[in-house]
């Protein structure tokens, strides 16, 4: 673009016209101590004053992101779906296919994140990239899909934790019969515990995620080496790489395979976690793309190795699917090691990793709720957008996240297949929110990325964006299908119901109050200035 031919109108508001933001908490007055110049530039461009401390380095945020995504343990947590919908073919080839498309999504997000690193993420990007006429309403719906999606992420991971806990008890005491209310109690207990840690353990969290990253990689080697070293006999290579299993009731193997893709897709759930921590990360413009892409790369290596290991070691498939513990991976551990103690130890490692993932997911969800409330898009926005002056975190937003996850737990209590619905919604809601900014990029809004530190260019970029958007549309269509046939009330895929509820509530609130209160993310600098960082910096210097 030729800036001289197309002047950029930079709005320099008078002090009384500047939109007020929640003030910085005590002890954080001098933000230059913790924020680099580029961070300040971009916060000014995106229209918000920095109020959160930037405690996260590049490595700390990579550890944070991977601990949430944690692809190899993610595929273990939702293993029953993959085994039923393709078996070894799904676990291996499905994982490869999903990774390719997920990388296209990650690359697209990385471009935008390097230009606009804010806690709002997708809804903020949508507002900036949209034509002015549609900016507010598009970012509104994007934000609701993203915010509810993250609460569903928290719920789906917490359900897995409850299942793991009860499975270890049942393996030790076979006379105990599993009831959903037991998992529900564990679910609520850990939901509350992790919320308290997020609200009052701010300083410890970067260290928890950092050490958890090493524990996660150590556990990856431990679990895979133990299974390979103890399982006997192992399945043949022909079985592992060429056997399709369809226990879904679908007559079409193709549909069964497509529905089963929710298993590897769930393994990349929470991909945008780092995005919503941007305002707590040092030099976010440069580091966010690295974190997003690295998370997928590390995730794929650990995912494919684990998938192949499981395929070689799952000896009695029928017994795995019918296990009394309700957790297929525990049965695989037991078949491999023939030791209850060793099996429980391996699952307890996964239990720890799942707990760390809940901590990170709740942390991300609370930051997104806080950012959305900061722009007056939620009921009780004034309360939800405050930063606790002692804890220096959005405690009220953390409490709301806890409450929503607690309510979602009731869905699991009421249906034996509700976990599948939570898994499907986890994937769908997040990707629907990705579709807004990626679609806008694809349809002519790339000019607003001229100041991005990471760019795919005007030739490769649109192609990658198109692949990412096509994959999202594919998921929205097929991941609403029932997981098993024939369909009845107990095994219905309720993803569409949850998505419909999000659309209904957000539409009703928009018509009631949103269209008057919400004008999109608050901008202290005109949107047109956003695609020329240098000019914005010069303007700021001239103003001072």
Automatic annotation (TrEMBL):
Q: Which Gene3D superfamilies match?
A: Amino acid/polyamine transporter I (1.20.1740.10)
Got a GO cellular component term for this one?
Answer: membrane
Report the domain of life of the source organism.
Answer: Eukaryota
UniProt xrefs under Pfam families: AA_permease_2
Provide the membrane topology annotation: Multi-pass membrane protein
Which GO molecular-function terms appear in the entry?
A: transmembrane transporter activity
**InterPro entries the record matches:** AA/rel_permease1
Keywords in UniProt for this one? Membrane, Transmembrane, Transmembrane helix, Transport
Where does it reside?
Answer: Membrane
Instruction: State which residue ranges cross the membrane.
Output: 59-80, 92-116, 137-161, 181-200, 212-232, 252-271, 291-317, 342-360, 393-415, 421-443, 463-481, 493-512
Name of the protein in question: Amino acid transporter
């Amino acid at each position: 673009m030729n800036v001289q031919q197309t002047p950029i109108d930079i709005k320099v508001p008078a002090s009384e016209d500047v939109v007020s933001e929640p003030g910085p908490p005590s002890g954080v007055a001098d933000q230059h101590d913790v924020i680099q110049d580029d961070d300040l530039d971009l916060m000014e461009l995106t229209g918000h004053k920095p109020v959160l401390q930037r405690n996260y380095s590049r490595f700390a945020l990579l550890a944070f992101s991977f601990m949430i995504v944690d692809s190899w343990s993610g595929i273990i947590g939702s293993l029953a779906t993959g085994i039923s919908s393709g078996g070894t073919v799904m676990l291996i080839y499905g994982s490869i296919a999903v990774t390719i498309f997920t990388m296209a999504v990650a690359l697209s997000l990385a471009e935008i994140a390097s230009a606009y690193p804010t806690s709002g993420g997708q809804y903020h990007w949508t507002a900036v990239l949209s034509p002015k006429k549609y900016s507010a309403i598009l970012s509104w719906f994007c934000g609701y899909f993203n915010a509810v999606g993250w609460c569903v992420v928290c719920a789906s991971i917490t359900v897995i934790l409850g299942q793991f806990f009860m499975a270890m008890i049942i393996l030790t005491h076979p006379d105990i019969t599993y009831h959903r209310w037991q998992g529900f109690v564990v679910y609520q207990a850990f939901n509350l515990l992790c919320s308290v840690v997020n609200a009052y353990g701010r300083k410890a969290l970067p260290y928890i995620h950092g050490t958890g990253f090493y524990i996660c990689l150590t556990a990856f080697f431990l679990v895979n080496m133990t299974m390979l070293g103890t399982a006997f006999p192992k399945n043949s290579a022909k079985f592992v790489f060429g056997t399709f299993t369809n226990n879904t009731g679908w007559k079409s193997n193709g549909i069964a395979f497509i529905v089963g893709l929710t298993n590897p897709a769930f393994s990349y759930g929470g991909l945008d976690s780092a995005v919503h921590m941007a305002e707590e990360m040092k030099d976010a413009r440069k580091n966010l793309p690295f974190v997003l892409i690295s998370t997928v790369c590390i995730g794929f290596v650990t995912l494919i190795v684990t998938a192949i290991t499981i395929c070689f070691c799952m000896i009695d498939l029928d017994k795995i699917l019918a296990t009394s513990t309700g957790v297929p991976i525990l049965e695989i551990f037991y078949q491999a090691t023939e030791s209850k103690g060793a099996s429980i130890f391996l699952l307890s490692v996964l239990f720890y990793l799942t707990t760390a993932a809940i901590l990170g997911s709740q942390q991300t969800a609370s930051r997104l709720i806080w950012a959305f409330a900061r722009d007056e898009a939620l009921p009780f926005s004034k309360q939800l957008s405050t930063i606790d002056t002692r804890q220096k975190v959005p405690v009220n937003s953390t409490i709301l996240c806890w409450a929503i996850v607690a309510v979602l737990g009731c869905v699991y209590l009421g249906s034996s297949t509700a976990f599948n619905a939570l898994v499907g919604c986890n994937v769908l809601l997040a990707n629907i929110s990705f579709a807004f900014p990626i679609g806008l990029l694809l349809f002519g809004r790339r000019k607003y990325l001229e100041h991005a530190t990471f760019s795919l260019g005007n030739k490769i970029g649109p192609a990658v964006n198109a692949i990412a958007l096509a994959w999202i549309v594919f998921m929205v269509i097929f991941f609403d299908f029932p997981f098993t046939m024939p369909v009845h009330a107990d095994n219905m895929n309720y993803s569409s119901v949850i998505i419909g509820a999000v659309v209904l509530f957000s539409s009703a609130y928009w018509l009631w109050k949103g269209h008057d209160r919400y004008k999109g993310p608050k901008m202290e600098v005109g949107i047109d200035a956003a695609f020329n960082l240098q000019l914005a910096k010069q303007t700021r210097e001239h103003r001072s």
